[in-house]
Design goal:
Radius of gyration: 19 Å
Strand content: 5-15%
CATH architecture of the largest domain: 3-Layer(aba) Sandwich
Largest sheet: 5 strands, mixed
CATH topology of the largest domain: Glutaredoxin
CATH class of the largest domain: Alpha Beta
Number of domains: 3
CATH superfamily of the largest domain: Glutaredoxin
Length: 302
């Protein structure tokens, strides 16, 4: 799908700052009258979406409509997109039901977000992302779109998108995430797991919000410098693995922790193994990178 003239965003990696999770002025103005630039689509709608991307960039969120991590991500990205007042659109795709669309974008995991600019795909991120990171990517995407004469504004896609109904504790967690209260979201997910220990969506959701809480207000350059200076320091390696997963560098995070586990023993080795397993839950047990990392982990453990 890649061509020489295919638009691509510049790399954006700076401070992981979640303090901007509440941006009331933008969010309120976008929500006035219930207008939204978010809609669900199927394969039958996809060509029209491609055509719309010649007017303004269209974000495509590929996930699982019934899975908490996907629902949470869609809510966050939708809120950000709506705050731009039509300079972007967002379409939600159930990748499990619309496999052809997911395959067209060649995503390695869900949830994932890709943009379309004049019909050309622009990969944005896979897995977890903080609001500040999403806004930074969208600001870059606007610059990229302008270089390709895509500078229009889209009319609202309609009223508020009807999301699949979540179990009460999952909805409680989602509301807390929207408010930026990751501790409350974690509490709700723990309650859900206490009621239903095999609730895999709650398990993944808990791992996700714990990660978001850990990377809140972290400075990437400091974390990377500390990890490089102390390769056998447990906390330094855990911190950089967290920010790597949050920033989409999943393989780097997994490889770092596997190497640390192979070099160390005792409580520190077990702490690193536990964190690695938690990160597996966020990415998804069927993801190829998780499968590969599990095999590497088994080799260093046994």
């Amino acid at each position: 799908m890649s061509t020489e003239n295919e638009p691509r965003p510049a790399s954006t990696r700076g401070a992981i700052d979640l303090s901007a999770l509440s941006t009331p002025e933008a969010a309120q103005s976008a929500g006035e009258g219930g207008a939204t630039w978010t809609k669900r689509i199927t394969q039958a709608d996809f060509q029209a979406v491609v055509e719309q991307s010649a007017t303004a960039p269209i974000l495509v969120s590929l996930g699982a409509a019934s899975a908490a991590p996907s629902v949470e991500l869609d809510a966050l990205v939708g809120r950000v997109v709506d705050s731009y007042g039509g300079r972007f659109g967002l379409v939600l795709v159930d990748a499990q039901q619309e496999a052809a669309i997911a395959q067209a974008f060649r995503v390695q995991q869900i949830p994932a977000v890709v943009a379309l600019v004049k019909g050309q795909p622009v990969p944005l991120f896979q897995g977890t992302a903080a609001e500040e990171q999403i806004r930074s990517l969208l600001d870059e995407l606007l610059q990229l779109a302008a270089q390709h004469d895509v500078t229009g504004t889209l009319p609202p896609f309609g009223g508020q998108v009807e999301e699949p109904e979540l179990p009460p504790l999952h909805q409680e967690a989602l509301d807390a995430i929207t408010a930026g209260d990751y501790a409350a979201a974690a509490t709700a997910y723990r309650k859900a797991l206490a009621e239903k220990p095999n609730d895999h969506d709650a398990e993944a959701g808990l791992a996700n919000v714990e990660l978001l809480g850990r990377v809140q207000d972290k400075e990437l350059s400091e974390i990377r410098s500390a990890a490089a200076a102390a390769p056998d320091d447990l906390q330094a390696q855990l911190d950089v693995a967290d920010v790597d997963v949050a920033g989409g560098h999943v393989d780097d995070a997994f490889n770092r922790l596997v190497v640390f586990i192979g070099r160390n023993a005792g409580d520190e080795r077990e702490a690193a193994r536990t964190r690695l397993v938690d990160l597996f839950k966020i990415i998804g047990t069927q993801d190829e990178r998780v499968v590969s990392a599990r095999q590497k982990l088994a080799r260093v453990l046994f």
